[in-house]
Design goal:
Elements (H helix, E strand, L loop, with lengths): L1 H31 L15 H14 L3 H33 L1
Length: 98
């Protein structure tokens, strides 16, 4: 149980740093294209919905393959993040009650 808990914690830390890294790459790509994204990528892990909703909204106006790729990677990482949390909670519930 301790090993699984440690693995989940490590994944959470990696996920949040990776999300900030992707947010910075998206903001720099918008800057390269001449558009100003007002949201701060370094705070994207604190207020996840604000930065990513702004980035998705601007991506609709400025179609760019790199930005869409980064948004897709973030979406996939988020799905994996939620799957691991659900599996961990399910495992803890299973061990405790069955």
């Amino acid at each position: 149980m301790e090993i699984l808990s440690t693995v989940v914690k490590v994944f959470l830390v990696v996920y949040f740093f990776y999300a900030v890294f992707l947010a910075h790459k998206i903001k720099s790509r918008f800057s390269e294209l001449g558009h100003d994204l007002k949201a701060n990528p370094w705070l994207s892990f604190m207020n996840i919905s604000f930065f990513w909703s702004k980035a998705k909204g601007m991506a609709k106006d400025v179609y760019d393959d790199k930005i869409n790729k980064y948004l897709s990677i973030y979406k996939q990482a988020t799905i994996i993040f939620y799957e691991i949390i659900i599996l961990f909670v399910g495992y803890v519930f299973w061990v405790k009650y069955f």
